[in-house]
């Protein structure tokens, strides 16, 4: 049981990779992350690369070059990155495709507009933009981010308001604080 008023905050994650160099290039180019440190682990007997896109966080992503050669699938459900606009979502899509992303698709969750793709080693990456609305999850409609912004926002609002569980995101957050 946690002490009252104490809530741990998720701050970073690590993934096992085959080729830390390839994956470092992908995440630095697509997400403008920087390498803060790298080298062989002291308690881990493999190479570690520490990446961040924020100066106040030493690392947000750790690439551990310890994925077994015979591993045929990724155990990463998804790595999620938040952006602030549809134009940023489109820019990430373009950069990801340019740097080897595959299986690109758009998905409208109602509470978020997302693109999903595989990085060069088959890990699923989500890049998303929050909306001001909430609908119960999982929720997913196709999303074409090449449509004009106004059309995307209007279609999203129409769909979420038709959902029986619809509410404003601010109302969901207020409910969360009081539960």
Structural class comes to alpha+beta
Number of E strands: 11
How many DSSP helices? 4
- Major β-sheet, in short? 5 strands, mixed
Order of helices and strands: EHEEEEHEEEEEHEH
The stretches of 5 or more residues where confidence is low (pLDDT under 50) are none
Strand order of the largest sheet: 5-8-7-6-10
N-to-C CA distance: 17 Å
C-alpha Rg, in Å? 19 Å
User: What share of the residues lie within helices?
Assistant: 25-40%
Q: What fraction of the residues are assigned to beta strands by DSSP?
A: 25-35%
Mean pLDDT across residues: 91
Q: Shape from CA axes?
A: globular
Q: Mind explaining what this structure looks like?
A:
The protein has 179 residues and is α+β, with helices and mostly antiparallel strands. Helix content is 27%, strand content 29%. It is built from 4 helices and 11 strands, in the order E-H-E-E-E-E-H-E-E-E-E-E-H-E-H. The chain has helices spanning 20-31, 86-98, 149-162, 169-178, and strands at residues 13-16, 34-40, 47-52, 61-64, 79-82, 102-108, 112-118, 124-130, 133-134, 141-142, 167-168. Strand 7 and strand 8 (124-130) form a beta hairpin. The radius of gyration is 19 Å and the shape is globular. 22% of the residues are buried. The mean pLDDT is 91.
List the helices and strands and how they pair.
Blueprint: E1 13-16, H1 20-31, E2 34-40, E3 47-52, E4 61-64, E5 79-82, H2 86-98, E6 102-108, E7 112-118, E8 124-130, E9 133-134, E10 141-142, H3 149-162, E11 167-168, H4 169-178
Parallel strand pairs: 1-4, 5-8
Antiparallel strand pairs: 2-3, 3-4, 6-7, 6-10, 7-8, 9-11
């Amino acid at each position: 049981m946690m002490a009252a008023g104490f809530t741990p905050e998720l701050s970073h994650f690590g993934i096992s990779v085959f080729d830390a160099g390839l994956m470092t290039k992908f995440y630095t180019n697509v997400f403008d992350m920087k390498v803060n440190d790298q080298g062989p682990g002291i308690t881990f007997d493999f190479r570690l690369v520490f990446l961040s896109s924020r100066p106040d966080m030493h690392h947000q992503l750790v690439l551990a070059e310890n994925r077994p050669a015979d591993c045929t699938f990724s155990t990463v459900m998804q790595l999620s990155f938040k952006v602030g606009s549809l134009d940023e979502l489109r820019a990430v899509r373009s950069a990801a495709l340019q740097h080897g992303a595959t299986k690109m698709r758009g998905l409208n969750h109602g509470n978020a507009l997302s693109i999903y793709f595989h990085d060069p080693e088959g890990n699923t990456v989500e890049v998303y933009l929050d909306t001001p609305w909430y609908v119960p999850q999982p929720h997913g409609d196709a999303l074409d981010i090449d449509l004009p912004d106004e059309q995307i926002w209007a279609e999203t609002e129409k769909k979420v308001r038709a959902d029986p569980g619809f509410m404003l995101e601010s109302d969901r957050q207020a409910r969360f604080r009081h539960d």
